[in-house]
UniProtKB/TrEMBL annotation:
Keywords: Hydrolase, Lipid degradation, Lipid metabolism. The lineage of its organism: Eukaryota, Metazoa, Ecdysozoa, Arthropoda, Hexapoda. The keyword Hydrolase applies. GO terms for molecular function: RNA endonuclease activity producing 5'-phosphomonoesters, hydrolytic mechanism. This is Mitochondrial cardiolipin hydrolase. Pfam families: PLDc_2 (PF13091). One of its GO terms (biological process) is piRNA processing. PROSITE patterns: PLD. InterPro entries: PLD-like_dom, PLD_domain, PLipase_D/transphosphatidylase. Residues 26-58 form the PLD phosphodiesterase domain. The keyword Lipid metabolism applies. GO terms for cellular component: mitochondrion. Belongs to the phospholipase D family. MitoPLD/Zucchini subfamily.
Length: 92
């Protein structure tokens, strides 16, 4: 039996992860694709962002653009964006 996205989310929640989703009915949608790495350790923090979908298909078959950087100003801008999104979404 194939898992649907909701069951995958619940599986992650059962593993103790804090998850949030965008409230339904929002008109303005920007499809963010970014990943902060070690963002709580400014000296070591990094980010990647771009068109990449973090799926098997996206990682092995698609032709995507991605930027990986440890630039402090860029990391901070995306950290601020993450905090804004996190505070505006609802807990699962």
């Amino acid at each position: 039996m194939a898992e649907n996205p909701a069951s995958k989310i619940m599986h992650l929640k059962e593993q103790g992860l804090k998850l949030k989703v965008q409230p339904s009915g929002r008109d303005n949608l920007l499809h963010h694709k970014f990943c902060l790495i070690d963002e709580n350790h400014p000296k070591d923090s990094k980010i990647f962002f771009g068109t990449l979908n973090l799926t098997l298909q996206g990682m092995t078959s698609n032709f995507d653009a991605i930027i990986f950087t440890n630039n402090v100003q860029i990391v901070q801008k995306y950290r601020d964006e993450f905090e804004f999104l996190w505070s505006s979404f609802k807990s699962v």
